[in-house]
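Task 17 of the worksheet. Students: predict the tertiary structure of the chain below and write it out as structure tokens. Keep your answer in the requested format; marks are given for formatting as well as content.
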Amino acid sequence: MAYRPFETKELSDVSVEKLETDLIFIGITGMYDPPRPEVKDAVAVCRKAGIRVVMITGDYQVTALSIAKQVGIVSSENPEVITGTELAGLTDGQLKDKLTQKEVIFARVNPEHKLRVVNAFQELGNIVAVTGDGVNDAPALKRADIGIAMGLRGTDVAKESSRNGFDRRQFCQYRRSY
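Model answer:
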């Protein structure tokens, strides 16, 4: 974080370039949004059932990899982390090769990237389940064979886009009864 004193008269000609010069550093802040405790167990249950779990997130690469390791989504020494920019440069064939070769994480992606990954998995013959809680997840939730809206604070768009209309609580009740 930083600041810069300025005169009110400077506001008449405001631009980022002018305001963000001669700043005085005052500190650094960090945020930690840990995964929910139950996620690690849920991932382990999926793996035991033969379900492959792949992370597709808007988070930065380092954050995504750290969380994926914490919750057991990846276990190899060198999983591949593909950014949205890198994904945009891959052909459909290259993407499918990445999905079949080894553990992969997608980071810094947008809704179109998520949708493309879902489509690629489906074209490879997989049944795809997608979890999500926000507007950015809506296209992938809608396209998935199983769409699961997550969280009590999940957006209505995510809930409505879930093809099967599950929210997390309903899915857990369904799973327990199965």
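Marker's comment: The radius of gyration is 20 Å. The domain at 37-177 is CATH 3.40.50.1000 (Rossmann fold).
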